[in-house]
Structure formats: C-alpha cells, structure tokens
Design brief:
single chain; about 750 residues; alpha/beta; ten-stranded mixed sheet; 26 helices; 22 strands; binds ligand C2E; binds calcium ion
Length: about 750
C-alpha cells in the first residue's frame, strides 16, 4: 500500500511537472504564477512520495520539511495566480507582501526544524506491519496552519467576490478555480481528522493543479472565446448561419431567426431556406468564398440581401461553412431612388434633359441604319396660364401633357421634359404619325379643368445629320415651332431648310445689331395719328432697319427675335433717344404741340431702368414729358405687376402719357385698366375686324369706347384702312386714327414734311 501511494504521488508530481513545462511555454498573462503553482504542486506531491518511501525518520523529516515549505509557497502562488486571474487591484499586493515575508520566516523555521523539532517532529508508527513516518505537530505548527487557513480564506474571498461582479458567462472560469481550491481544503480537512498515516490531500493538490492548468490554459482561451464569439454573433445585426459538413445547421443567431422566421428547434429548416434563397443565383457554389446580392420576397415583403459565404477549414480539411447575410434593402432602394431622381424629372416622371441626351446619343450609335426624329412640344402662353391660375394649376397641366405624351408615343420612344413647359420626344421616323397626333392632342386640350384655351404646338426635326449634338437636334425641333408661333391654324410644324435659313439670318442679325446701331442703320419711321378730318396730331415712332446687306427690314423681321433674346432694349433705347431728340428739334422749330409715341417692350423692364431712362431723356432734351408718349401692351403686365405699376405711376406723376397698345388683341383684362394710370386706349382694328359677325364687333367697339370715355381715356383706333371704318368710329366717339387709310409709317423726314398738312389730300 505504501508503495502504491509512493507511486501515485510520484505520478501526480510528474503530471504537474509536465503541465508546469507546458504552462511555462505559453504566453498568457498568468503564465508565471501558474508555472509556480504547478512547480510547487509537483514539489508537494514528490516530497510526499518521499515521505512514503522514507527508509528512516531522518529522511522522512527532510521530506516533511520540503513538503511543508512547498505547501507554503504553493498557497502563496495560488494567491498570486488568483489575483492575476481575477484582475484584482494592486492594493491586494500589500497582503501578498505580508504573506511573502511570513512564508520566508516559516520556511526558515521549518527548514531548521530538522534540528530543532519546534514545529513538528517525525514519529514512526506501525500499522498492519508497515512502518509509516508521521509528523507530530507542535505549537509553531498551529501558527503555520493558521497562516494557511488565512491565506486560503483570502483566496476564497478573491474568487467569490469576483463571481458577484462578472457576467454569468465568466462564472465557469472562477468556479473551476474555486472547485480546485475547495477540493484541496476538503481533502486537507479529511487528512487532519483521519489517522494521518497517509496524506490524501496530496491527491487534492494534484487535482487542483490540473484544474488550474485547464482553467487558465485551456478553458479561458478556448471555451470562453467560443462563448464570447457566440455573444457577438447573437447581438450582431446581420444574420449568421453556421453549418457543419453534413449541412446540419449548428448555429443561427437571433437576427437570422427573425429573418427566416425560424423558431427554436427548427434549425433543420435553415438549410432549405438558404438553398431556396440561393437557387435563383447562378454562382459556383463549390468555392470557399462567394458574395452575392440577391433579391427575395419573405412573407410578401421584398428584400435585397448581401450574402457572404465562407467555407471553414482546419489544416486544409473542411470543418463546416457559414453565411453572413446583410439586409441591404434600404441601401439599394435609396440607390434606385437616387438613380431615378438623377435621370427623371420630379414633377412629371419623364426623363430629364441629361438622361434624354444620353439615351438619344446611345440609341443613335446603336442603330445607325434607323431613321429617327425629334418631336418638340411647347405650350403656348404657359407663363400666362401659370400667372393667372397659379403654379399649382400650371403643374397639373404639365402633368397632363406629360401623361399624354407618354401614352401617345410607344415604349421605344424617349420622352423628356426639357425645361418648364417644353417637352421633347425621340422616336423612329416611321413611328411618327402626324394625323394621330393632331387628332389625339385635342383630347388634352379639352381635359384641362381650368377654363383656359390651352394650346400646344409641335415641332418636328427628322434627323438628317446624326453627328449633330443632341441639344442642336432639339433646338431645330423647337425652331420649327418658333418660326410658326403666329400660325394659329396649324399645330405641327417641320424643321426644314427654310427654317434653317431663317436661323442663319437671325444669327447674322444678332451679330450685326450693335454695330448697326452705332452706324445709324436703325431708322425712325413715323406713322401719323390724325383726327377724323385728317389733321396730324403726332405719330408713333416705329423702327426700321436699313441693313447694309439685307436692305430695309420691317420690325416683324427682327423685333420678335430681339424680344426673345432680350436685345430689344438696345433698339428701344436708341429709338427713345431719337424720338426725344426729334421732339426737341420740333420744339425749337415751333411745333412743340406735336408728339411722338414710342413702344416699350415687356422685356425692357428687365434690362433698363425705365423711370431713370425717360426722366433723364426729357431733362437732357428739355422737352415736356407729355410730348413723349409711352406705349405699353397688356402682356407687359403679366408679371411683377406691383413693381411695374409703381414705375408707371411715377412716370405718370411726372407728366408722361401712358398708352395701352393693342387693346383688344390679347386677353384684354379690364382689371388692368382699374389700377394702371392709363391715359390712352389704342384699339387694334386689325384684330377686331377679324370677327365673323361685324355687327357684334361694332357693338363691342362702341362699348369699349364708351368705357374708355367713362374712365377719361382718349381712344386711338389703329389699323384703320378704309373710309367706312372712319365713319363708324367717328360716330361712336373715337378721338384719333392711325392706319393706312391716313398714312403708312413714313421716314421721319417725310413725316416732318407732312406736319400740319392734312395727310390725306
Ligand atoms: P404696333 O406698335 O402695334 O405698331 C403698329 C403696326 O401696325 C405698325 O407695323 C404699322 O405699320 C401697322 N399698321 C398701322 N396701320 C395699319 C393698317 O391700316 N393696316 C395694317 N395692316 N397695318 C397697319 P410695324 O411698323 O411693322 O410694326 C410692327 C410692330 O413692331 C409694332 O406694332 C410694334 O409692336 C413693333 N415695333 C415697331 N417698332 C418698334 C420699336 O421701336 N420698339 C418696339 N419695342 N417695338 C416696335
Ligand atoms: Ca405700338
Ligand atoms: Ca399697336
């Protein structure tokens, strides 16, 4: 039996010694203390084996000394290990220091006990014919024992207090260590209260040593790490599914459970769920890694998933695989929305200009053999509609028009909103059906809820030069409309060589204008304004361009162009100045009572300070403001009414006479007359006489004149070209006449010759 224990204790010592060797090589934090624990544990076992094997009392005595000293330092090392393992704050270091010095003292005491026998003494005891050397304790041994219990108590406190502070996932770690410790204490107690022939507590030391080793070197890095990874995976907001090599799902995190609607105990369904998800994607599934984005529907809701597959290998052999799935639905939807917004017009949902350019160019490059055309659409007087009915109604109209265009052109056409009220379509030339467009467009003209005569004009450019920039193709389609703006009978116009010619012509005029003004090519023609008996009271200054190469140009050739591009103000300011200069000349020659009317274009307000301009002119030429009459039109008052009214009021206060030109030609708003300081109403007979029922027309004219009189306005009738008109107008109270019946516009010098001479002889 003795030799059995000798062998067992030696074996335990060898095991601990080997573990000490392993622990010493590891690089973890507790390495030093663990090695010491195992080394002293080994010393405890081996010294006890020597006690068992002792041949005489002296040998047993020395072995006991080594045994007790080893226990001292073993306990001390366990304290160190626990402190390190539990990350105790350094103040405990004081405790350790005290124990250190005590154990130095105790070790010396025990070492010298061989000679002094003051701590213990060895006694031979016989049992069943075998001699056992047991130690008998003396007073100082009790102190040694008490110190051992105190340090054990401290170790116990360190471990238990830690248990209260940490998450339960760490409990195993400390409980393992505590268990090793408790085993030692129990076996030690058994020994103390037994016959003490054999110290069984040594087995406890060996077991505890193995446990400590396992806890520090095996459990902590592996098991705990695994637990922590799982914790991370559980809290991860992406879905994670882990499979073994037989396609059994061995782990699925919370997110994945929610996502695939998988409940506990249904892990088998994971494999099917993943297979179904991946069935539509054509990827090589044999690789160790792949990453795909796939769209799927889960319970009717659409998802975009980013699926990452990882095959797991150890030493080259597959041990399983896992999926990491991110929900990218929000990102992809935002991206798609962004793409849509970047390429579409937000109001109408049609392509925007950039996208249209891009698509057209691409299509032209791809289908070189096909003939295409560009169809432009422009809403006539859209600005007026917007101003009168509000931008909300304007938007509704634009949406209706775009719905129409989208529906009218087939899916192979591209339809876009270029700007405001300008639309454009690109389609195969053969697909363009003029008759159908003419017929169908009438429907939207009726559909608009607001009571407004909506009119849409179309310009068509058959692309004959595919090298042209897309913007130029569109320009050409719109040019076809611009050239025919006044054509109220037709709706669809084609870009042709004539249009092209006109375009070049306009470009030339634009380039020439400033030079021509400087060279005096712009002339004033004056159309006399007479009383019914033909007496000239004054005249309207009308511009003519005596162009160096084009000859004498009438205003209709260039006024609309310069109104479009804003250059009209150069012409007007020049004419106003010439008119003022002329009035000054007349004043000097005794004709101070004659006047000249000048035209003010709506665009002038944006480019010229009208008030300053006229104020300065009358000052500069020292003429009466009432001699320089100002003609404005109704369209002039479409927007920015307050500011314009203010300016007109100021001019009126200064003595200028304000004339409302072409009254009756447009959307004659009686409202305007209510607020504006208008002194003269110019009725355009040309427009009025276009009416079918002359009788009704005459009634209207009569009432308009009556109204003007009520408002203390002078009435001028323009476009009077026959005698009967004069008779009628005279009978209803017209004051002044301007028209071919009396005189066409004539050069200024001719007009001056006519002054005071009846125009019609
Ligand atoms: P408007 O201001 O209404 O000028 C009257 C136009 O009617 C003149 O054409 C004149 O020749 C024409 N007219 C006068 N009586 C008769 C008639 O009995 N029968 C017909 N068929 N026509 C008649 P014009 O001079 O060709 O001017 C055309 C338009 O050009 C003018 O219309 C005016 O809007 C614009 N315009 C002319 N000169 C200027 C200018 O210096 N500045 C601006 N902003 N516009 C101008
Ligand atoms: Ca005029
Ligand atoms: Ca007029």
């Amino acid at each position: 039996m003795k030799s059995f224990y000798t062998f067992a204790f030696t074996a335990a010592g060898v095991v601990l010694g080997m573990l000490a060797g392993f622990a010493g090589k590891k690089k973890n934090k507790c390495r030093r203390w663990l090695t010491l624990v195992l080394v002293f544990g080994m010393a405890v076992c081996v010294s006890q084996a020597f006690v068992m094997a002792a041949l005489n009392a002296a040998m047993a005595n020395v072995s006991y000394a080594v045994f007790y000293i080893s226990i001292d330092w073993l306990l001390y090392s366990v304290l160190g290990l626990c402190e390190d393992f539990t990350f105790q704050p350094p103040r405990r270091g004081v405790f350790k220091k005290v124990f250190f010095w005590y154990y130095i003292f105790d070790s010396i005491l025990i070492a010298t006990d061989i000679f002094t026998d003051i701590v213990y003494s060895v006694k031979a005891v016989e049992s069943s014919g075998t001699i056992f050397y047991v130690s008998e304790f003396h007073l100082l041994y009790q102190i040694h024992l008490a110190a051992s219990y105190i340090i054990s108590f401290v170790i116990g406190i360190v471990l238990v207090s830690k248990l209260f502070k940490v998450s339960t996932i760490y409990w195993d770690k400390y409980i393992l260590m505590l268990a090793g410790f408790v085993i030692v204490l129990i076996l030690d107690a058994l020994y103390v209260f037994s016959d003490r022939l054999i110290d069984y507590s040594v087995i406890g030391y060996a077991l505890a040593g193995v446990l400590f080793y396992y806890d520090v070197d095996v459990y902590k890095p592996r098991v705990l790490l695994g637990k922590m990874f799982r914790g991370i995976a559980d809290n991860e907001c992406d879905a994670i599914l882990l499979f073994d090599t037989d396609n059994n799902c061995i782990y699925i995190n919370e997110r994945a459970k929610q996502f695939f609607r998988i409940f506990d105990g249904e892990l088998d369904r994971c494999y099917e769920a993943m297979e179904e998800l991946l069935s539509k994607s054509h990827i090589d599934r044999t690789t160790d890694y792949y990453n795909i984005i796939c769209a799927t529907k889960i319970e009717g809701v659409k998802f975009h998933l980013d699926i990452e597959f990882h095959r797991l290998r150890r030493s080259g052999r597959e041990i399983g695989y896992y999926y990491h799935i991110q929900d990218k639905t929000a990102d992809i939807e935002a991206l798609e929305k962004g793409k849509y917004l970047a390429s579409h017009d937000s109001l109408t949902g049609l392509y925007n200009r950039d996208e249209f350019y891009h698509l057209v160019r691409k299509r032209l490059n791809e289908e070189k053999e096909t003939e295409f055309c560009v169809v432009a659409a422009d809403v006539k007087d859209f600005k007026l509609l917007n101003d009168v009915f509000g931008s909300h109604n304007g938007d509704v109209v634009l949406q209706k028009i775009s719905d129409f265009l989208r529906g009218f052109f087939d899916d192979s056409a591209f339809v876009c909103r270029i700007t405001g009220d300008r639309f454009c379509a690109f389609l195969r030339r053969d697909d363009f059906d003029e008759a159908a467009l003419k017929r169908d467009v009438v429907k939207i003209l009726d559909v608009n809820d607001i009571n407004y005569p909506l009119s849409i004009q179309f310009g068509v450019y058959f692309i004959d030069d595919t090298e042209l920039a897309v913007s130029q193709m569109i320009d050409r389609a719109f040019m076809a409309i611009a050239e025919n703006k006044e054509d109220l009978r037709n709706r669809i116009f084609y870009y042709d060589s004539e249009t092209k010619e006109k375009r070049y012509f306009e470009q030339r005029l634009t380039g020439d204008l400033l030079d021509s003004i400087a060279k005096g090519e712009l002339k004033i023609f004056v159309q006399p304004q007479c009383t019914a008996d033909g007496k000239i009271r004054g005249g309207e200054a009308l511009v003519r361009w005596d162009h160096h190469s084009e000859g004498m140009l009438n205003p209709e050739k260039f006024i609309p162009l310069f109104e479009r591009n804003g250059m009209i103000s150069y012409i007007d300011r020049y004419i106003w100045e010439m008119a003022a200069k002329t009035l000054r000349k007349w004043k000097d020659s005794g004709f101070a009572d004659r006047y000249l009317s000048v035209n003010i274009s709506p665009r002038d307000f944006y480019f010229v300070d009208i008030y300053d301009e006229f104020h300065n002119l009358v000052k500069k030429y020292d003429i009466a403001p009432s001699q320089l009459k100002l003609e404005i039109t109704e369209t002039f008052m479409i927007n920015d009414i307050d500011r314009k009214q203010f300016i007109l009021d100021e001019l009126h206060k200064d003595g200028f006479i304000i004339e409302m030109d072409d009254f009756g030609s447009g959307y004659s708003s009686l409202n305007l007359l209510k607020n504006l300081p208008v002194d003269v109403l110019k009725l355009d007979m040309g427009f009025l006489y276009k009416a079918r029922d002359m009788d009704r027309c005459r009634k209207i004219i009569r009432i308009m004149i009556e109204l003007a009189k009520e408002l203390d306005m002078t009435v001028i009738c323009e476009g009077v070209d026959d005698e009967s008109q004069v008779h009628f107008l005279d009978s209803v109270g017209c004051d002044i006449y301007q028209g071919y019946y009396f005189s066409k516009p004539v050069p200024l010098s001719n007009f001056e010759n006519l002054l005071d001479i009846p125009a019609k002889l």
